[in-house]
Amino acid sequence: MNEDGSGDVSVEEEAGAEAVEIQDTVALSSDHEGKDGEEPPGTSNRSPEEFTDAKHESLFSLETNFLEEQSVDNCSLKALQDPFLQHVNKELKEKEIQAVSTNPKNTHQLKWPILGQLVFSSKFQKLETFKPPKDIDLNSLHLQKPLASTWTKTNSQFLSGPPKSSSFFTPLQKELFLIMNSYQDLFYPERTALKNGEEIRHVYCLHVINHVLKANAQVLGNNSRRRSQKLGVGNDDDFRDQGLTRPKVLIVVPFREAALRVIQLFISLLEGDSKKKIIVSNKKRFQGEYGSDPDERPPNLKRPEDYEAVFVGNIDDHFRIGVAILQRSIRLYAPFYSSDILIASPLGLRTIIGGEGEKKRDFDFLSSIELLIIDQADIYLMQNWEHVLHLMNHVNLLPLDSHGVDFSRVRMWSLNNWSKYYRQTLLFGALQDAQINSVFNKYCINLQGQVAVRNVPMTGSISHVLVQLPHVFQRMEAENLASVIDARFNFFINKILPQYRDAVMSHTLIYVPSYFDFVRLRNYFKKEELNFTHICEYTQKSGVSRARHFFLQGEKQFMLLTERFHFYKRYTIKGIRNLIFYELPTYPHFYSEICDMLRATSRGEEATWTCTVLYSKYDAQRLAAVVGVERAAQMLQSKKSVHLFITGEK
């Protein structure tokens, strides 16, 4: 144990501990049925059979129910212009699928009034682009009943002014929904909890319910047609209307609070202002497990506004829940194979999917996902991005078991293992990031094409730094992306650190975004017997207090601080006089936040404050977010490797 109270745990030990935790919890599932279809408290060892529906089968089964005439607008379902039907009924040819792997990506840029710069792309032959109409009417959107009437009330908090023909959407919602309703993949990297998070959540929930109601109405309608049809008359191919498993929508959110809000929106969209309430099963249990007690939050806790907006309500990040929707009923905690919609965190999915060699694992329920929504993607960078990659590698695989499916009802493209070409992915995050971009580029191959919002930051977050401070940006060279990690470490210990070893350069904070870089630096500092302390997301509270005290008093010359600790705690570190950004922060506003910590204990030594930032040509996006796109371009192309900025000049 170190002086600051945190243990000497290696990367391998920490990774091993996480692997054990995953194995211990892989059998957990939110759809385990106990009394009255509810899950008993605590953990449970699951068998694959428990993923199937046992109770309430007939009530929520798509196979045994038929169309209620008043529950669906038959005309809109049959309309050839309906984007849902156009999408699911489109038949790809084998040669088109084969060509995808060799075709170059066609791209086209357009500027939309609200979303800004859009990049349309597709690997299929035809690239479809469009501009948003000035006005739209509800009929043109093909909303399923009762959404045309319930949406306006559900969305009213975002609408102001006199009613207009298109006033049921905000300008942002209108443009987003037009893309969603076209069934193209979408990447929107400007979703923030403070500014537009709820506005966006509302519009994607509308799209989800619209999709599920149409899909289920198609199945129920075909059930009715088959029942009334004379034996031996007609073609079975006329009734191909579903996937190999029932779950068709997966919504990935980071915290239980987000899942709570999504389901509340579902209820509102199905209920609206109707006097007849819809039936919501297991509602009390859901509110108990996903709600929060406002008294739990310390009253004197002061954090930035964006922190308060992200970490609101129940912030548990290990959960998953199945939702079945049938006519005027919603079943919460539906077993996964009897669910239409799955809502889960990356960790909640990881512990079901499991890993190679694990006996108890299941991912067949992901085989027929038609709509994947990944909301607040940037937060998963702070949680565990590997869980997101693990999920993406298991979506739309052929199931290992038939799960009682009627193969005569399964769409041919699903049987052909082409579901990934029909899956629409909606990716929302707060920033342009290389890892998020990579997921969108690699895993989103929808036949309708992709749309990415690509606005560049003209002014960077450095303009929000209030303290008077010289910022020295030092460019390090790396031959390729794979060598950046080692190049950064060697540059730091050989070129940067020697300047700070002198006792005069005390009170030096080193901000480290990557946990693995942090462990490497911590081990190096120990080996070199440097006078330092450190704080990471695993440091116990007592260790954090000691480390902050030692650093403030100058008893420790250096402090290593991880980005994840700052993300989750947002403490002000007092006593900083020299600041080193080992790498540019993931969130650009963290740059100004960390810099402004210098004024927390100003004792007249402002003239000696320093700030050093390491960057390489592979940090272009992060650099642009901090200094602005024009300056970033100059700094990356310049022959000079050192660039100076001064902030807070009077």
Task: Give an overview of the whole structure.
The chain is α/β, with parallel strands linked by helices and 650 residues long. 36% of the residues lie in helices and 14% in strands. The chain starts with 10 loop residues before the first helix and ends with a strand. Mean pLDDT is 86; it is low at 1-50 and 69-78.
* Low-confidence regions: 1-50, 69-78
Q: How many independent structural domains?
A: 2
Secondary-structure-derived class: alpha/beta
Query: Helix proportion of residues, in percent?
Result: 25-40%
Mean pLDDT metric: 86
Number of strands: 18
**Name of the CATH class of the largest domain:** Alpha Beta
C-alpha geometry: elongated
What fold name stands as the CATH topology of the largest domain? Rossmann fold
- Based on the structure given, which CATH architecture of the largest domain is correct? 3-Layer(aba) Sandwich
The H-level CATH homologous superfamily of the largest domain, spelled out, is P-loop containing nucleotide triphosphate hydrolases
As laid out across the biggest beta sheet, the strand order is 1-2-11-3-10-9-4-8-6-7-5
